[in-house]
Amino acid sequence: MDLERGDDAVMSFEWYITPEEYQHAKQNGISAHTLDRRIRSYAWPKEKAINTPPQKRRKFDRVFAELAKQNGISRQTFRLRICVFGWDQERAATQPLQNRKSNIVLLCEKRRIFPKEILNLAIKNGIKRNTFYVRIRRGMSPEEAATKPVENHAEKSVKGGKALAQKTLAARRREFKRRRVPSPAGSGDG
């Protein structure tokens, strides 16, 4: 490294810790190892690294730690509940762990829009869940959507054919009325 290039190339020696700085940190309750980590690994400014007191570790009652272990709660979960969630030690040691499957079921029940009985009625009547929801979106009541029988393709074809015939007949009538030639008697062209 070329240090003779000028001021802009001067290397910073902020990572170097003097014996006086170690002593000052020790007076503030900071160990040499902690000071090294703060400055060299975490890139803290020296003033902050020397003057910020270390975090105090919480002491846990061994009775509650054992109780947590007996209840199937890991040490990490026990500490997390106390330090992060702010629970008291008794609650952290005794409240059972959550079961993800039961939580998912509870969440689904909470978000349910239609009662389970209506959905079961639809399934019992041979109506698929998707058909049920499509019917609701198209304006049917939940009871009607769950009980109205599903039409098979033949029924749909007959119904569609009748609708098409009605539509075509109405269009032909309109066209006939438009093309109709007025009678000579009522024309008044005399």
Overview of the molecule:
- The protein is an all-alpha fold and about 190 residues long.
- It is about 60% helix and about 0% strand.
- The protein has eleven helices and no strands.
- The protein has helices at about 20-25, 30-40, 45-50, 60-70, 75-85, 90-95, 100-110, 115-125, 130-135, 140-145, 155-180.
- The longest helix is centred in the last third of the chain and has 27 residues, at about 155-180.
What's the short version?
With 190 residues, the protein is mainly α. It contains 11 helices and no strands.
Task: Tell me the layout of helices and strands.
Layout: H1 19-27, H2 32-41, H3 46-51, H4 62-70, H5 75-83, H6 89-94, H7 100-111, H8 116-124, H9 129-137, H10 142-147, H11 153-179
Features:
mainly alpha, 59% helix, 190 residues, 0% strand, 11 helices
Order of helices and strands: HHHHHHHHHHH
Termini gap: 117 Å
Rough outline:
elongated
User: Beta-strand level of the residues, as a percent range?
Assistant: under 5%
The main sheet comes to: none
- Uncertain stretches of 5 or more adjacent residues: 1-11
Give the class from helix and strand content and strand pairing: mainly alpha
Residue-averaged pLDDT, rounded?
A: 83
Helix content: 55-70%
Gyration radius from CA atoms, angstroms: 41 Å
Question: How many extended strands?
Answer: 0
In DSSP terms (H or I, runs of 4 or more residues), the helix count works out at 11
